[in-house]
Structure formats: structure tokens, C-alpha cells
Design goal:
Nucleotidyltransferase, domain 5, 400 residues, 2 domains, 8-stranded mixed β-sheet, 5-stranded mixed β-sheet, 14 helices
Length: 400
């Protein structure tokens, strides 16, 4: 029975999970994916689906007994029960969790205990869309299987060794010392891409990666390390996203509070849930819907998105000291050829030239032979990165 790590990404109404086996040596591309799935509709109308590594459906279940709504603990109990009875013959030895914010204290994955949970709960105001739900997944496993070791893997950790000038705000030093920093996010994704770069484009030392999905950010990587990122103190900063504003003059927030009567709760809702592609288009937060629409508001939202990516590409290339390669990843980055083409057209001044045919077929290398900067699509795999980290933490803890 192979030892396996269960990777958990818990949201407000869903738990995404994946099981990885043979993670012990951390060599090559890491452990083998056995299955991945999702239990959604927590608290309302649950649905459960699991697929194997090839994408074949292992289980689909949407009939649940009437009564009390399923909570996170009940959902986790169902997931662990299914894994135990699935016939996959796995020995789940640990659970690894994506946790969005690690603050100043956590610059690497860590074994979870009550003190860690308390510290992470204090960071909820910095990541209100994600942190409370990440912690709910941890507490759910602790309730269902208290003896199962759990490891927190942080989206901020990859960025924690940025140069000081890329990390601090121009605020009084007392505020900086209290933890108000530019942390950066999507670190597990960027760490995975940095791990893949030597295999895909080994000559590239100065790289900008665009993680483009419903949440979107960009990162400058030099010699495998983060040197700057578009996200800062919170995950609302930087690029416009599905429903998040991205970078916003803080004077706008002051004006809304002082002159428009907005409450703090209304500001939070505006910044995180009512803005971005959805707010500009008034149609959808889904880029696929916007690309399919002939509404001029959809076009304006797409134009804003591409403009900000191209603008930040120049800034991050400066932070990296130049640019050898530009990488697209995540849902939009990996699949939206039109977005990639628009961004690269606006970056033509940098010598970027796309091969249109390669771009249309989502090839790994998108750039033409005469491009001064190579352009790539590298699919990200945050779950695999979490599995690698979890096994590594447990191995380190168990070592004499």
C-alpha cells in the first residue's frame, strides 16, 4: 500500500483535493498524481466528483440524505471515507494545505499545531476571501482524523526573500516593522514554474511569469528566486482580476469612506467581489464570456486587463534586470490565445515576437525564431508543489 499525501484547497463552499503517491525522493517532477476531485455545494446542494490522473471519472455523486446541510467537517469525512473505500489502496500519511497568507513568521511550509493555527487566524483580514476557508479545511481534518499530520504551504513564502526595496511601503517604520509589507501571492504556482524552468528553458535567468486566472498576478524571477510581484500586502493588489480591482489609488478608498458614506464592509465587498472584469464589463468575471461577447463593455474590460499585464511586464523586467523569457500560466494564461497575442503585441517594443500558429494551438513555445525574448506556456501545478513540500516537512521532522 503506497504512502500518499492528500492535498487540500478549501474554499467557502467547496473542497478541492488530490492524492499524490511516491513523493519520498522529491526528484524529477515530484510525486505521482493518483486522483483529484472536488466536493462542492457545502452548506447547500453538494456534488462530488473524482477523476484519475488521466482525467477519467472514478466517482460522481450528487445524491445526499436530507437533513442538516453538509459542513466542512462532514465534507472532509466523506472525502476521507471515499479514499479509504475507493480501491485505490492508498495509505494517506499526511494532509498538505494551501494557505494563502503566512505573514512575516512563515517563510516556508510548516507542520500545523494549535499555535500555528492561532497565528494564521490573525491574518484573516489580509486575505478575507481565502484564509478563513483554508483554515476551515485544516480544522475539519483535525476533527475527523486528529492523528493525521497536517502541513501548511503558503502562497506568500516564495516571495519572502525579495530585496527590501521590493518589499516595503513608504510608510513610517513602525508600521513596516508591525508587518505591513508587500508580501506577494500565488507563490506556490511561481515556485512550481521556477522548478520547471531549468527543464523547459535552461538558459533563462531573468523571467517574468504571468499567472492569469480569476485571480491574476505577475512575478519577476531571477535565478529561480522571486524579486518582485504585482500583488502586495493583500491579494487584491496588482492586475485587475475576475472580481477584484487590482491596484487602486488609496485616495479612492478615502473618498468613498469620507464623501460617499461607504462602510468598511462595503469597501471590502467593492474591492474583492464587485470590481475587476465583472465591474468593468457588468457582464461576467469569466474571460471566456467576455471574449465571446460583442458588448463594448466586455471589450473595454479585456483591453484594461491586457494593458495592465503589458505595463507590468515592463516594470517587472526592470526589476529582474532584463528579460530572457516570458511565461504564461494558469487558466487564462494557458488557454486564452487572444489574450496572449494582445499582451505580446503591446510588448513588441521589447523585441517579443509571437509565432501565431504556435499561439493558436497553445504550444509550449509561443515565440518566433527572431524573438528577442522567448515566450512560453508552462502549465502550473500548485497541488504537486504542496505534495512535495508536505512530504519534505514530514521527512525533516522524522529525521533523527
Amino acid at each position: 500500500m503506497p504512502a500518499a499525501v492528500l492535498v487540500i484547497n478549501a474554499g467557502s463552499s467547496s473542497i478541492k483535493f488530490a492524492a499524490y503517491a511516491d513523493a519520498g525522493d522529491n526528484k524529477g517532477d515530484g510525486p505521482d498524481l493518483v486522483c483529484k476531485g472536488q466536493l462542492e455545494g457545502i452548506g447547500s446542494d453538494p456534488g462530488f466528483i473524482v477523476k484519475d490522473a488521466a482525467g477519467g471519472t472514478l466517482c460522481a455523486h450528487d445524491e445526499w440524505p436530507r437533513g442538516s446541510p453538509l459542513d466542512h467537517a462532514g465534507a472532509m469525512r466523506f472525502i476521507l471515507g471515499w479514499l479509504d473505500e475507493s480501491g485505490l489502496d492508498l495509505d494517506i500519511v499526511a494532509a498538505g494545505h494551501r494557505v494563502v497568507h503566512g505573514g512575516l513568521d512563515y517563510d516556508r511550509p510548516i507542520r500545523i499545531d494549535e499555535a500555528v493555527l492561532t497565528a494564521l487566524a490573525a491574518l484573516i483580514p489580509l486575505a478575507p476571501l481565502h484564509q478563513p476557508h483554508n483554515l476551515a479545511g485544516i480544522r475539519a481534518i483535525a476533527e475527523v482524523n486528529p492523528s493525521l499530520p497536517q502541513v501548511a504551504c503558503f502562497d506568500t513564502a516564495f516571495h519572502r526573500n525579495k530585496p527590501p526595496a521590493a518589499e516595503i511601503f513608504a510608510l513610517p517604520r513602525a508600521l513596516t516593522d508591525s508587518g505591513i509589507h508587500r508580501y506577494g501571492f500565488h507563490g506556490l504556482s511561481y515556485e512550481y514554474i521556477a522548478r520547471r524552468l531549468p527543464q523547459v528553458v535552461p538558459q533563462a535567468r531573468r523571467v517574468v511569469v504571468a499567472h492569469l486566472g480569476n485571480g491574476a498576478s505577475m512575478c519577476a524571477i531571477r535565478d529561480g528566486r522571486s524579486v518582485d510581484s504585482t500583488m502586495g500586502f493583500t491579494a487584491v493588489d496588482g492586475l485587475p482580476m475576475g472580481t477584484r480591482t487590482g491596484a487602486l489609488d488609496p485616495g479612492v478608498v478615502l473618498y468613498l469612506l469620507q464623501a460617499r458614506g461607504y462602510t468598511a464592509e462595503a469597501i471590502e465587498r467593492l474591492l474583492y467581489k464587485e470590481s475587476g472584469l465583472l465591474g468593468v464589463s457588468e457582464i461576467s468575471n469569466d474571460m471566456r464570456d467576455l471574449l465571446a461577447s460583442d458588448d463594448p463593455r466586455a471589450g473595454e474590460a479585456i483591453d484594461l486587463f491586457c494593458y495592465q499585464i503589458a505595463k507590468n511586464l515592463g516594470a517587472l523586467a526592470a526589476a529582474a534586470g532584463g528579460l530572457d523569457a516570458f511565461v504564461f500560466t494558469a487558466g487564462i494564461g494557458e488557454h486564452a490565445a487572444e489574450i496572449r497575442a494582445r499582451v505580446c503585441a503591446q510588448a513588441a517594443w521589447m523585441g517579443i515576437r509571437l509565432d501565431p500558429a504556435a499561439n493558436e494551438r497553445d504550444a509550449q513555445r509561443l515565440s518566433a525564431d527572431d524573438s528577442a525574448v522567448s515566450v512560453w506556456v508552462i502549465p502550473t501545478d500548485e497541488e504537486r508543489m504542496i505534495a512535495i513540500h508536505t512530504r519534505s516537512v514530514l521527512t525533516h521532522v522524522a529525521a533523527p
